[in-house]
Amino acid sequence: MEANFCMKCGSALAEIVIDDTPRKACAREGCGFIHWGNYSIGVGALVVKEGKVLLVRRAQEPGKGFWTNPGGYIEQLEPIQETIKREVFEETGIVAEATRIVALRDQPRGIHNVYLAFAMEYASGEPKADGVEVDEAGFFSLQEMETMQVAALTRWLVDIALSNNGNGLQADHDPIVPLSGQGLFRI
């Protein structure tokens, strides 16, 4: 979708060049709005319990019928760690806590998508599909996944989840300087 009108004042946008890149900017004098692009941030969960990974079968497009790790998109004012916790619970009924970011996918396209995969510590619950976004949910071993239609990205993420090397970016709950309202992750 192409932006044609200013999100600040509603005036028409005109093309300008900033640092050798064409951008859309408000044509109304004094407004100053610049449309920097369209972006989305997705999150995925890697919940491992007794050597098995939590997967869901997609009931909607994209990917209907494929098995994937639970996940979704962040809400505008929701901290990313709360997003992944909420998505896992909504899709599967499982309570889990995000421990670290273990993978990132960068997908530049019409709407530039960044996807962060979180290792999560299982806390409680039995997998139960929400019946809307997903129609099946469960913990599966690599052997069980061999006969399942597992999405390619999920296969890559399962390998990361089961390598269990402890690496990744961990949440920094006590930074050396006060940075209120920011989600911070570090090695």
UniProtKB/TrEMBL annotation:
<dbReference type="InterPro" id="IPR020084">
    <property type="entry name" value="NUDIX_hydrolase_CS"/>
</dbReference>
<keyword id="KW-0378">Hydrolase</keyword>
<dbReference type="InterPro" id="IPR015797">
    <property type="entry name" value="NUDIX_hydrolase-like_dom_sf"/>
</dbReference>
<feature type="domain" description="Nudix hydrolase">
    <location>
        <begin position="38"/>
        <end position="163"/>
    </location>
</feature>
<dbReference type="InterPro" id="IPR000086">
    <property type="entry name" value="NUDIX_hydrolase_dom"/>
</dbReference>
<dbReference type="Pfam" id="PF00293">
    <property type="entry name" value="NUDIX"/>
</dbReference>
<protein>
    <submittedName>
        <fullName>NUDIX domain-containing protein</fullName>
    </submittedName>
</protein>
